[in-house]
Sequence to fold (644 residues):
Amino acid sequence: MALIELRKLARIYQTGDTEFAALRDVDLSIDRGEFVAISGSSGSGKSTLMNILGCLDSPTRGSYFLGDRDVAKLSRIELARVRNEFIGFVFQNFNLLSRTTAAENVELPLIYAKVPPAERRKRSREALERVGLGHRAGHTPSQLSGGQQQRVAIARALVTKPPLILADEPTGNLDSATSAEIMRLLSELQQSGITVIYVTHELDIAAYAGRKILMKDGAIISDQRQTPMLAEAS
Amino acid sequence: MIPVSETLRLAARALRRNKLRSFLTTLGIIIGVGAVIFIQSIGEGAKSRVRAQIESAGTNIVMLWSGSSQGPGGRGGAGSQPSITWEDLRAIQTELPSVRAVAPQINSSQPVISETNTWNTQITGTTPDYFVIRNWPVASGALFTASDQASAAKNAVIGQTAAENLFGPGVDPIGQIIRIRDAPFTIVGVLERKGQNAMGMDQDDGLYIPLSAFQTRMQRGLGKFVPGRISVSAVSPEAIPRVRQEIAELLRERHRLGPDDEDDFSTSSMAEMTSMLTSTQDTMTLLLSAIALVSLVVGGIGVMNIMLVSVTERTREIGIRMAVGAQPADIMNQFLVEALVLSAIGGALGVLFGVGLGQMIAPRFGWIMETKSEVVLIALGVSAGVGIVFGLYPARKASQLDPIDALRYE
Fold:
């Protein structure tokens, strides 16, 4: 059953009289539990697609079904609720709150989900343990390595138990060994049933996915199933 | 929207993070509120001092004058045409239930000669009830009596300043003989110290003798009419208007004035005097408070400025919060509550600052501080209002950020 269903989705930016189509009538269907890598050169529309998938942006035309709900025309307020309940974000530059402990960073989505403080602390600790950082809960981002910061970000993404995690170049700022660790972590999450979609321009990182989508000029030019790298290893 | 307690906690954290900046921002509010509290307290203190001084002249007093008559030569001023007789006075005292006591008084500034000194002082001829009305007991000796008044006895009661100047410090004035226009008077009592009156005059510089003695020694003798002003004290402050009304009715009847005739006497109450003197104070206080309020608004602009800086600085934080599910209203509240907490703390510190400043400065200039609780509440309310008004624009700006742009902000 499809978790994501895009139909004739277009995103057109207008500057003065000139129109620029970042996405041109994209059709895409992603099932629950899939592990999808999106690649493409810069300007291919992959970031725009991620923003719309993440409900940070709304399409100009077309429809976007997340679950059984069309989220293409939702208000800012409703989009915020959808992001909070259904989506976890992982960014290239981690986007953690500085001078704020790992535990508090992970708690952040739960504050907006109106989870009471005691429950928040418990779930934050569980999420940090799941990414292997239970012992670093009291550390601030500046006291953590890049890989550890990205783990905190992943913990923050999964603390609300969302069905979908979106990662935008999750390994872009990391060395190859750390990148492999992060991809292994994302694979584990996918194997536990979460749908994981990530953007990358590196071939070896795209190899972790079970499905590889290539974009160019705002359209999908190839969409292939592949055997995920870690599935071979195990 | 997330609960207020959560937003408050966020605001407290953000403000603690920039302690110096938060403090400097609140300084504007602290000074503004402090100035309002200080000025209001000093103004209120000055007012209540004037009130106390006026009350020291005696409580619940209605002043009564002869005069204001319409004659062939034009209209005379108060006291210009004697009209109140001793019988009128007795009638006021005995017939009007709201009247507690009545005392005529006549003044003259005269040189008074003791064995050692000469001193120019205010001599008042009056009756013993005068001291009842003015609530003014003797410190030593005794007051002159009703029989002194009846016999025009040459007994005198003296104020402390006059006594010191006539006899020198440390000399007991009781039993001393003084001369006024060659008439010898015996000092029988020294009054308690009373200080300055509302006009700044030393009330202790005076000599009091029976009215009858005053008239026989210094005027042509007792006449049919009561000279000078007459102090009438009402039984209570509330009875003052009633006393004035009753006196007017009584005197009009006794003087057989027709409905078209004007009063041949006039009355005024201390309440009129009080409101006249305090209204000047009120105007000054209002003016200075307006200036202080301007500085509070300037403080508010400081809050807005720093909130705008804060929103810009924390653009990425706003983006992160929005990405993980913060509603625009949550972001708006976060910054609004921050501005509110900032100015409310400023307001509270400002109250302390204003009161502290007053406690420090006021005694040096002999001012009295009187901080009214409603002024404190209003100052706190206004500073919180300033926080909301000047926090609104930055908070709105923050809440309307686009999450994608905010996340990308460097």
Remarks:
- Chain A is about 35% helix and 30% strand.
- The mean pLDDT of chain A is 93.
- The domain at 2-99+162-233 of chain A is CATH 3.40.50.300 (Rossmann fold).
- Chain A has one domain: 2-99+162-233.
